[in-house]
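pinging the channel bc i need a second pair of eyes. not urgent but kinda urgent?? the chain im working w is below, pasted from the shared doc
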Amino acid sequence: MPTSGQLIRPPAVAGLFYPDDPDMLRDIIGTYIGAVPTHAKPDRVPTPKAVIVPHAGYVYSGQAAAQALSRFAPDSALITRIVLMGPCHGVAVQGLAAPKADAFATPLGTIPIDRSAINTVASMSFVTIDDAPHEKEYSLEVQLPLLQTVFGGFTLVPFAVGSATNDQVAAVLETLWGGPETRIVISSDLSHFLTQQQAASLDEQTAQSIELLDWQSLSYDHACGRIPISGLLTAAGRHNLSAERIALLTSADTAGPPDRVVGYGAWAFA
């Protein structure tokens, strides 16, 4: 529970991207996790250091995100910190922006911000401390109820990533890499507003680049979160991690029309 005087970032897209009723929210996330294929259950595959997950409304991409984030479950007792990065959708950011807020809230409760971790990277010239990019940023928020369901408790180190290089993102990740207590979540959708056929082709190219850790081949059209993805791929290469594809789909596969789709993918890195 937050203490008096704490600065809390309230949910901005509860009731829009996911249910704002706690019971409904728990039910839908439980359904997503319960629907994870048997061969992909968390106790049957390696526990990842990092994942890439989509960030659309739950009806579109919640199942894919839940399947990836549930991979952390076997280590839930060990994991105490999540480093979360996603692209900025509403506020221009030079570099990476961490919040001033003490906690982020969702209908499932509050998540404390790891201020010590943020202070560790705050001296980097490309890291700013600014609540404005976080106020309405859904790429980070939509992951929080899923993470709250997988973990009993954890601290959060969130970054809204704007105009940055892969090396800058990787430098932040390397500084906060830690051990088994720290895991990384990169939030990104893939192609936007193509036909189903066009999206499937482009997203397969993106998937192959991710699985080869080939950040150089990713461009603006491949993924809205290509910059944080590129930083993760850079760091993953340095740590000899490999990428496993968990899901690759579009909004037409879940709840949208086939003529103007958004692509979604999920990967685990171990």
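so The chain is about 30% helix and 20% strand. and Residues 196-211 form the longest helix (16 residues). — does that match what u expected or am i reading it wrong
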